[in-house]
Predict the 3D structure of the following.
Amino acid sequence: SMSPKPKKPADKKQMTELERARKQNVAKRNDMIQKSKKSLSIVENKAVSYIFSKVKPDDDPDTIYTFDCQEFYRLLRWKKESYTDLRGMLYSIASQTFGIVDEETGTEKIVHWFNTIHLKMSKNGKIISDSKLPGRYVEIKIHEDLMEYVFGLEQQRRENNIFYSAYQLQNVSMLTHTYSQNMYELLKSYENIGKWKFEYGTGTENDIQMRIAVYTQEMEPHDNAPAKNKGGRKRRKVYGAAKLVPIIPSSWSTFHFFERDVLKPVMKEINTYTDIE
């Protein structure tokens, strides 16, 4: 038989830093929350929030933020505690684009999350060995097209009545359901309005399914483009506009299944782990 060993007391300084990280605010403009069509997975969503939580109200948009791999693992209790998994996740985020439409100007912005993601092999000039992979860190700079949605938010609210939502990182760090963070952020963006109605299964912008869905990007080839050039060589594929398509399971067409698989588990997580009910 084996006797369980008592856990070593956590380092007080580390716990303090982790607690501080949990309480850092994630702030986003409401139109970004309500209008973005994202293709982020659960852990990718949290990784973006983790970086946004490092933005301070008076930060310069050119600020470079440090993604501390070990802190990220501990905050999220991510089961895949390997540098390879984290590196793969950051590559995935780096490759993704999403659309934000500026309704005042009618400008559609095709946006990346970050300008730069630099995975560092060393810290303070000291190479980190393979046995300390979780100790590696990453330098990240937020994409310039997102700056007005993330930086100077209080000033925008005061001067132009443009509203934003803010919440402590710990409110999303424990969420595990695919749709919990999207639903939570959406509800936070309407928190001060009082009551808000969503549609169900209508396919419009106010359809709750469309609002919380994970999106995938599809490129449509032009049907009328000839297959070959005059010389007989294959013609390069010509694409039409990119479409961001919501991934909506067929079971959602029946409210009973949507309620069972999405609404109830998401509501339970939001009520358990976040600051709203």
Notes: The chain has eleven helices and eleven strands.
